Amino acid sequence: GKERPAEVALRRAALGLATGAYEDALAAAGQAIQAAQAAGARRFEALALSNSGAALIRQGKRAEAQARLERAQAIMTAIGERDGLGQVLNNLGVVHNEMDDYEGARQCWAAALAIAQETGDRRSEGRAFNNLGLVCAQLSDYHGARDYYEQALSISRQIGFWLGQCFVLGNLGVTAGQTGDFATAQARFESSRQICVEIGDRDGEVRVLGNLGSLAADQGDFVQARRCYEQALADHRAVCNLHSECQLMGNLCKLSL
């Protein structure tokens, strides 16, 4: 049909996002936007704008990402595409959060939550609860953060979303550590790590190792902290995660000061 070229390019953009090939994702999204505009396929145009916005977020180009996402938001709103609007609002929330506009992020994620609950999208509902928890944590409202995370964890367990459980358990661990409840933090991190191992999530496993290292350092156990950081660093190099490698090297340098 007339939407076929846009749909094919949109799938290539999604693949680029999933594999970290963000330049490829942007190029494919641009082709999808052009094809959708030529065909008058507004939904595909909005989805492509959303994908390009997501790729720009990963590249740290927040202003450009925000502009494209707001265009996608306007189209989704105009055509009454509720599911797509929720996805766009989630990405817009990420942009606001990274720009330290926590109220803007909260508004976007609260709206995304309302849409997910309206449409019965449980995975997006859980993601929105988790994101609202992040905002609370950044504003030092750790009890509020924990409440949101617990709701996100409950949903992930109900729908069998194991990857979601890994992320939320990690966030619960961080929040527990921030309130000085180190035993709960340790238990949450270990639960997260166990799930990551079981589902083969190498990135998630080493992310938890980094959290365990920070937890050990917070308690003055610098030997254990170094052990966790070094193991995480070796594993990150194995999966070629350069951003996390830089973070871990920074943590190791702090231990040496």
What does this molecule look like?
There is one protein chain. Helix content is 87%, strand content 0%. It has 13 helices and no strands. The chain has helices at residues 4-19, 22-39, 42-58, 62-79, 82-98, 102-119, 122-138, 142-159, 162-178, 182-199, 202-218, 222-238, 242-256. Helix 1 packs parallel to helix 3 (42-58), helix 4 (62-79) packs antiparallel against helix 5 (82-98) and helix 9 (162-178) packs antiparallel against helix 10. The protein is globular and about 60 Å long.
Shape: globular
Percentage beta strand: under 5%
Which sheet architecture does the biggest sheet show? none
Q: Rg, please? A: 20 Å
Number of helices: 13
Mean pLDDT, nearest integer?
91
Order of helices and strands: HHHHHHHHHHHHH
Which structural class do you get from the secondary structure elements? mainly alpha
Name the helicity range: over 70%
Unreliably modeled segments = none
The end-to-end span amounts to 63 Å
By DSSP, the count of extended strands is: 0
Strand and helix layout:
Layout: H1 4-19, H2 22-39, H3 42-58, H4 62-79, H5 82-98, H6 102-119, H7 122-138, H8 142-159, H9 162-178, H10 182-199, H11 202-218, H12 222-238, H13 242-256
Helix pairs in contact: 1-2, 1-3, 2-3, 3-4, 3-5, 4-5, 5-6, 5-7, 6-7, 7-8, 7-9, 8-9, 9-10, 9-11, 10-11, 11-12, 11-13, 12-13
Quick rundown:
The protein has 257 residues and is mainly alpha-helical. It is 87% helix and 0% strand.
